[in-house]
Amino acid sequence: MAEASQQEEILGKAYDLRLLKRLWRFIVPYRGLFFAAMALLPLQLAFGLAQPYLMKVGIDQYIGEGNLWGLQGVGLLFLGALLGESLTLFFQYYLTMLVAQRCLADLRVAIFAHVQELPMTYFDRNPVGRLVTRMTTDVDVLQEMFSSGVMTLIADFVMVIWIIGIMFYLHVQLALVSLALIPPMAIAINYFRVRARQTYRQIRERIARINAYLGEAISGMAVIQLFAREEKSYREFDDRNAAHRDAYHRSNLYEAALYSMVEAAGSVSVALLLWYGGGEVLHGVIGIGTLVAFKEYIHRFFVPLRDFSQKYAIMQSAMSSAERIFQLLDTPLTIESAKKASVPRPFRGQVVFDNVWFHYKADDPVLKGVSFRIEPGEKIAVVGATGSGKTTTIKLLNRFYDIQKGSIKVSGVDVREWDLRALRRHIGVVLQDVFLFSGDIRTNLALGDLSIPMDRIEEAARAANATSFIQRLPQGFHAHVRERGSNFSGGERQLLSLARVLVFQPEILVMDEATSSVDTETELLIQDALEKVMRDRTCLLIAHRLSTIRNADRIIVLHHGEVREMGSHAQLMEKKGIYHRLYQLQYERDVVKLAAREPTPEVYD
Amino acid sequence: MRRLKRYLGRYWRRYLLGGFCLLGTATLVMWIPWWIREAIRIMEHDGSLRDVTFYAVLIGAAAVAQGIVRTYSRALIFNAGRNVEYDLRNDLFAHLQKLPLSFYQSQRTGDLMSRVINDISAVRVMLGPGILNLVNAPLYYVYALALMFAMDARMTLATLAPFMLLMFAARKFRSGIMKSSLEVQQQMSALSSHVQENLSGIHVVKAYSQEELQTRQFTALNEEFRAKSMSLARLRGIIAPVMQGMNALTVLIVIWYGGIRVVRGDLLVADIVAFIAYLNILAWPTAAFGWMLSLFERGRAAMKRLEEIFEVTPAITSPAVPAVFQGLKQGLEFRHVSFAYDRQKNGSFALQDISLSLPVGKTLALVGRIGSGKSTLAHLIPRLFDVTSGEICMDGQDIRKLSLRELRQTMGYVPQDPFLFSTSLRQNLGFGRDEAGDAQLEQAVAVARLDRDLENFPQGLKTVVGERGITLSGGQKQRATLARALVADCPVLILDDCLSSVDAQTEAEILQGLRSILKHKTCLIISHRISAVKEADEILVLEDGKIIERGSHQKLISYGGVYAELYQQQQLSEELEQI
């Protein structure tokens, strides 16, 4: 048991060292400031530790002799040391924080930039909240390490060495007597530290269990209530809660004992000092001032010993945060531009799927050998039942996911050989659930790119029939957009997403039409805008509107991950196959509805 | 705050005993400098080593005693704080269990969690370290000042001046820090909401190749955060040097002013030493004074926020005197039931004037499009929500007059969203009935067609399903929740579209297995699949919260309405599946 924990400790140390090394890389750009802070450390200590010495000189040499002039001199020196200590302390902290804030800001950006490049599969698996925690809470913990952990640990260590040195310089025997308690104290502190460490681990586990239980109970409260399980759940929660409390009771006792022991040892050392030093004073070997100086040094010696366990705990949690952060930074970017990425020119909006196989989960293929070809300017509608692989098809085109077999070529080049950014700039995507960022309309249409001139944005909005509702807003293009665009209707959001496409002018348009119903007027606006957006573009559309499939040059019917039928609406209807049924199932209702709402024939033609 | 007083009252013995220990500690701490003074006095007067040794032993003994008493004082008070934390957490949990579904729908789990975790911890810090320091600070001050005055009044006043100055400055300073740290907090939340939003819309960011731009925007916010953190750090950085400097300043005053008086002969070096010792002792309570006040401020604010949760009255409770209920005998009945999620917003009724009856032993089915009100109707029966008007009766008795517990124990409910707990499969299945035997579990597992899946789980029923059942597929989760309700073996069974992720073949097998069970039960089946409902005794078709068609399968088909249309579409889909 003891051996195991020892081994773990050794492993832990090697590991922590590696983490510290990686953290160091973020400090390197600011190493000048960092070393300046370090250089102030001995200076600060010297100012601090000079004070007891000056007390000794003052008491023994000047007060004892009645030399007030000399006392004044010592007083001024003391004042100097005091100011010096305060100033160096401040600047040392300030420089440390300067380094910490800068390198942690860099770390945050590094995490953010890395996360931007992670493949979609990562976001499918990891909740957003967890990633936010990495960039905020975990980085915060590291800041605490800087401000009250590692730097003060170094300072404390240096100070303890200094004090021992000074004591021996002043009086060897007295130093030995004053420090006599250190070896037994070290043993005792170590004993408590090991105990405390074990309880800390227990506490961490137990609080995690409480929070997990609580979180689960909150999300599943309806189930608990439905099964009238409140009392049992309460008992289970109580068990966890009590276990946590008990672990804390133990750790409180250890901590209290440790704290009190160090304080008591300080006083016992003073007693030893008085006993042995008293004899020396009475024999005239040393002055009372030396005794006073020793007492002060003992006081300064025991404070860091007392705070050690606290700082150690801070370091521990900083290391686990660092570990989580680096784990995230080490997540491989599986979808990147090829080494020799190409940007084919001139761009032709041609798309070729050649025997494409794809699965999210092994053994569960979503696309099974899909092949089709879209010529520049052609408009293709993809139809199919739910789960047929429609949405997946459009996600593959701009390389949100990589396929397992076959190839997808855009403008004659495999998407995996394209420069990723360039590829995506050529493909405009409109997804079913239109995502708007909080901000204003302008930033949403230009996606924050301020270099896009206003008239281009206005032009796009006009073409997308969005101007009329934008102008009705008091602030027009600067009208506030709430998180996820919740202050706009579904139809308005769709119009904005079409305007967004027109701002960026991609050669290829990929669209998953929204299914949400909108009022007739908006529907007409959307259809008209859509027509303009589709003009002169290669289009791949997952159609939910009758008008969209009617406007398409060709229709591809996906069924269970395979292309089963292809052709024009009329051809496919005649065939009376899958499309015929799908049409009855998904689109015929539209005909009825539209006919009922708006009897004019041009509406659905 | 009344609640807090109650908790404190529960542990008053510990606090009182802890207080006595603090008093004892303070006494021992305070006499040590006094004895040091005596010892040095002896040295100054060239007394005997024996007398010095006497005081040294006294100090040593006091130190050891102090160590023991101090240990108890800290352990007692900190533990009492942990005890209150424990009670508070338990009570909060018990309270949360009483709150209705509508409360949880209006709160985000994450927000609720962080409030509960952080606020309880702030209250605990107030009641542990906060109270300890609250007692200690005045104790130390009164004690030390009394002894210092006893030594020399003028000297005491001279050293106290900077302390007073310090306390005054600290108060001003603290408000500056509060303001600055609030700014840092706000900037931090701006930063995290940017990240949150960016990640929620990562597909847009990627599709439009906006990664670099997004990173630039983040960097700008991050820089602002850094600047604000830095100005806070600058303020914070001043505290420690000022405190340390002030303390050193008082020591300087003692040496300088005291030194002059020693030379003049009206003070001893021993007094100087004792004064320095007392000032050292007072350094911590002085420095910690502002910190202690902030602990109380934070603790009170946190308690207020917790109180807000405690004050949410459970809207759905058992009546004070529940009506007697001895098992379902006649059946369930809806009498002109209407329901709106938000009573304040008039007009948008989710259900309107629903009347239906479900006699014992019969099966009633509900069909309708998404959003037609099917699940809402099912939610009303176990009182996850209460009706807005009308009444739901069990054996003619309004369910609001029954004990909530008895009502809910009458029914096995399989919700639409299959929620499982992160325990073993066995524990999940026995959720409604821990004492269920192996035979019952096996039967339920067989009916829910979980048996084949279990063969593939190496640990069988002991398999841990992970958070929200993450290790299971959607279909497996739904079937597990079905099995859970079957194990509970209640007279009423409510199936809320609970087989939507199960493939058609397995669904047919499950329905086959359920058939014999349903004979002995009163059942409400909600489904969007006709195959699941066509054998029901009566089928209701809901649209926009109203019943638009009702009757048997045959009758509804021949009627040629919405149900018939749904049936036709379903047949088309089935045909499609088979192509």
Total beta strands of chain B: 10
**Strand numbers in spatial order across the main sheet of chain B:** 6-7-8-3-9-10
Average predicted confidence as pLDDT of chain A = 85
Oligomeric nature of the chains: heterodimer
Taking the alpha carbons of the first and last residues of chain B, their distance comes to 69 Å
Main-sheet strand order of chain A equals 6-9-10-3-11-12
What can you tell me about this protein's structure?
- The complex is a heterodimer of chains A (605) and B (579).
- Chain A is 67% helix and 10% strand.
- Chain A contains 20 helices and 12 strands.
- Chain A has helices at 2-27, 31-63, 68-117, 120-125, 128-170, 172-178, 182-219, 221-226, 230-282, 288-329, 390-397, 420-426, 441-446, 454-463, 467-472, 490-504, 520-534, 546-551, 569-575, 578-597, and strands at 351-359, 365-374, 379-383, 405-410, 413-414, 427-430, 439-440, 480-481, 508-512, 538-542, 554-559, 562-567.
- A 6-stranded mixed sheet of chain A has the order 6-9-10-3-11-12, with helices on both faces.
- In chain A, helix 2 packs antiparallel against helix 10, helix 5 (128-170) runs antiparallel to helix 6 and helix 7 runs antiparallel to helix 9.
- Chain B is of the alpha/beta class and 579 residues long.
- The model of chain B has no long low-confidence stretch (mean pLDDT 88).
- The chains are: A alpha/beta (605), B alpha/beta (579).
Give structural attributes.
heterodimer, A: alpha/beta, six-stranded mixed sheet, four-stranded antiparallel sheet, 20 helices, 10% strand, disordered N terminus, B: 579 residues, alpha/beta, 10 strands, elongated
Fold blueprint:
The complex is a heterodimer of chains A (605) and B (579).
Chain A: H1 2-27, H2 31-63, H3 68-117, H4 120-125, H5 128-170, H6 172-178, H7 182-219, H8 221-226, H9 230-282, H10 288-329, E1 351-359, E2 365-374, E3 379-383, H11 390-397, E4 405-410, E5 413-414, H12 420-426, E6 427-430, E7 439-440, H13 441-446, H14 454-463, H15 467-472, E8 480-481, H16 490-504, E9 508-512, H17 520-534, E10 538-542, H18 546-551, E11 554-559, E12 562-567, H19 569-575, H20 578-597
Parallel strand pairs in A: 3-10, 3-11, 6-9, 9-10
Antiparallel strand pairs in A: 1-2, 1-4, 4-5, 7-8, 11-12
Chain B: H1 2-10, H2 12-44, H3 49-98, H4 101-106, H5 109-151, H6 153-200, H7 202-207, H8 211-264, H9 269-311, E1 331-339, E2 351-359, E3 363-368, H10 374-380, E4 389-394, E5 397-398, H11 404-409, E6 411-414, H12 425-429, H13 438-447, H14 451-456, H15 474-488, E7 492-496, H16 504-518, E8 522-526, H17 530-533, E9 538-543, E10 546-551, H18 553-559, H19 562-578
